[in-house]
Amino acid sequence: MTNCLEEDLNHILSHTQDLWQELEGQRVFITGGTGFFGCWLLESFVWAVDVLKVNATALVLTRNFEAFKKKAPHLANHPALSFLIGDVRSFEFPQGKFSHIIHAATEASAQFNAKYPLEMFDTIVEGTRHTLDLARVCSAEKVLLISSGAVYGKQPPDIERISESYLGAPDTTNPLSTYGEGKRAAELLCTIYSETFSFETKIARCFAFVGPYLPLDRSFAAGNFIRDFLNGRPIVMSGNGTPLRSYLYAGDLAIWLWTILASGLNSQPYNVGSEDGRSIFDIASMIAGFSNSQLEIIRSENSDLVGAPDPYIPSTQKAKEELDLQTWICVESAFQRTIQWLYFSRNQPSGP
């Protein structure tokens, strides 16, 4: 398991090595640093510190440090990292300068969004503004907002891949649009603060991902399918399997995020994800095929693979042309690496 993650971390450094010079002698502030995205940001950060000897530290905002310490003690105890316990909407501003801020704190849960839409909206919008106020106070130079493809609203079925120039939006008459509308407001706040207070803001519109640290108990189809696979039981789909999704591996994700922070254009959004669209049924079938004995796939609505494609797939042309980013890890390898890591982590709960 350790070698598996080391391979991923070396992959990240091989495509970001020159970027780390910008962080030499600097302090970084990270919100949401203990979630899926955050763990990969921290893993790659401390790897750069250890391998490249980058002289940098990071302060990480978390609501539950004890839970994180159990999940990743090697990160919780790393000397380059320190932790601030608090809510993203109201944490006390730490003293001193931070050159870079990464704002990744959001509860990306469909269940939470449906049950507590007001809290979801407040967490996104108030949390973003509070973090931007910190950037103003601490004289930050660059801020990266982890946004979402949800800002586009429902992707029209006749658009194969949605680009940053698409001006669609979530349905404001539907409370389930809270997450997407919150992210739209967060992006606008970044633009306003950048123009008003003269620091750079970078926007990463993130789609779907897979990799170590992926939660298996959320509303993510990939995580649920992997959970079923690891438990040796039938893979259950909540629908008929026709929606189209694409998955970027977490190792590639980290490369994209660090690159956008360092080199992305000010107040410009970049789609972050894979263009390799697959149906949910195809993803389930691929995972089932990894088993020595073919696992059954259960569709809870009907047995026919019919219906509108319901795509959620980004165009990443902008990131490729402006930042030379690409998908290095194919989707099959991405899921295999994830399953391998999660399988072995059951016997080594201390992390990679």
Notes on the structure:
Helices cover 41% and strands 15% of the residues. By secondary structure, the chain is of the alpha/beta class. The strands form four sheets. The chain has a seven-stranded parallel beta sheet with strand order 3-2-1-4-5-6-11, with helices on both faces. It has a three-stranded mixed beta sheet with strand order 12-9-14. Strand 5 (142-148), helix 7 and strand 6 form a beta-alpha-beta unit. Helix 1 (2-16) packs across helix 2 (36-51). The N and C termini lie close together (6 Å). The model has no long low-confidence stretch (mean pLDDT 92).
How would the blueprint of this fold be written?
Layout lengths: L1 H15 L10 E5 L4 H16 L5 E6 L2 H7 L1 H4 L4 E5 L14 E4 L6 H6 L1 H21 L4 E7 L29 H20 L2 E7 L2 E2 L10 H10 L4 E3 L6 E2 L2 E2 H14 L5 E4 L5 E2 H10 L7 E3 L11 E2 L4 H7 L7 H15 L7
Parallel strand pairs: 1-2, 1-4, 2-3, 4-5, 5-6, 6-11, 7-10, 8-13, 9-14
Antiparallel strand pairs: 9-12
Helix pairs in contact: 1-2, 1-9, 2-9, 6-7, 8-10
Could you name the key traits of this structure?
352 residues; alpha/beta; 3-stranded mixed sheet; 12 helices; globular
Order of SSEs: HEHEHHEEHHEHEEHEEEHEEHEEHH
Helical content band: 40-55%
Largest sheet: 7 strands, parallel
Averaged pLDDT: 92
Number of distinct helices: 12
Strand proportion, as a percent range, falls in: 15-25%
Based on secondary structure, the structural category is alpha/beta
Report, as a whole number of angstroms, the end-to-end distance. Answer: 6 Å
Instruction: Give the strand order, joined by hyphens, for the main sheet.
Output: 3-2-1-4-5-6-11
Overall geometry comes to: globular
What is the strand tally? 14
Q: Please state the CA-atom Rg, rounded to the nearest Å.
A: 20 Å
Ranges where pLDDT stays below 50 over 5 or more residues in a row are none
